[in-house]
Amino acid sequence: MLYLKKIIKFLKQLLLFQFLKIKYKKNAHPKIFEWNWDKKNFNRIAVVNFLIAKTGGLNSKYLEIGCQSNTLFNSVASIKKTGVDPVSGGTHQMTSDDFFLSNKEKFNVIFIDGLHQYQQVRKDTINSLNSLEDGGWVAFHDFLPTNWKEQHIPRLNSDWTGDCWKLAIELTHAQNLDFKIIKIDNGVGILQKKSSDWFIPDLSKNLKTAGFEKFMENVEKMPLYSFYEALK
Ligand SMILES: C[S@@+](CC[C@H](N)C(=O)[O-])C[C@H]1O[C@@H](n2cnc3c(N)ncnc32)[C@H](O)[C@@H]1O
């Protein structure tokens, strides 16, 4: 019975995606980026554990926004972990906004992987930087979409990065923050807080309604690195 319910849910989702792809076909673009994620040796787990090791190892204070089935959360080698997700996984069942409203703790490493929409990721980033020790790191998932469907709002695809790439454009021009995108696992961003005096430009006027072409225009200007180049 449970199996049948899952199949029906999956088919309904598939139908909805088909309907939305037709509705939004005016936004279609033929460009496909050959990121070859499946041929890269590393993923977000390797990056987060590298940052944990750099900032205190087992005692490094870790926060994850968006935990789902705890694939990453359970693989982080720290004994001081907090995970926030309104649906499943982690330690706090609530939205990131609600968590930050009452949080007083400072973390060493924060991974942002919650709601993949520009304005929400932007808010999560600002709240995270305010809850981060100086010299600490924020990391991100899904900065590099492969095609127009993968980054579309509303969601049209099971593989979905959302439009977090818009924040990556702003972070490229940020001050007192060291920003890189590692070319693994759909684009893993790393951001170091150099001092409390950081600044992220607000380009939302231009970016809010921008489509995939804007990503194509800007991707070459982003600080893209291989795994080893970035971690050096
Ligand atoms: C891509 S999954 C996270 C995967 C996980 N970080 C990993 O690497 O294994 C995204 C998760 O974000 C959660 N989410 C959605 N909106 C959120 C919000 N406002 N605050 C926190 N988490 C949110 C979803 O419930 C979902 O479980």
Protein architecture, described:
Helix content is 33%, strand content 17%. The protein has 232 residues and is of the alpha/beta class. The chain has a single domain, classed as Rossmann fold, CATH 3.40.50.150. The protein has a 7-stranded mixed sheet with strand order 2-1-3-4-6-5-7, sandwiched between helices. 34% of the residues are buried. Bound molecules: S-adenosylmethionine. S-adenosylmethionine binds next to strand 1.
Short structural summary:
This protein is α/β, with parallel strands linked by helices and 232 residues long. 33% of the residues lie in helices and 17% in strands.
Could you give the order of strands across the largest sheet? 2-1-3-4-6-5-7
**Quick check: average pLDDT?**
96
Order of helices and strands: HHEEHEHEHEEHHEH
Percent of residues in beta strands? 15-25%
Number of domains in the coordinates? Answer: 1
Can you identify the CATH class?
A: Alpha Beta
Report the biggest beta sheet as strand number plus sense, adding barrel if it closes: 7 strands, mixed
pLDDT < 50 runs, ≥5 residues: none
Shape: globular
Distance between the termini: 52 Å
Provide the CATH architecture. Answer: 3-Layer(aba) Sandwich
Binned, the helix content reads 25-40%
Going by helix content, strand content and strand pairing, the class is alpha/beta
Number of helices: 8
- Name the CATH superfamily assignment: Vaccinia Virus protein VP39
- This entry's quaternary arrangement is single chain
Total strands: the figure is 7
Radius of gyration: 18 Å
Bound molecules: S-adenosylmethionine
As for the CATH topology, it is Rossmann fold
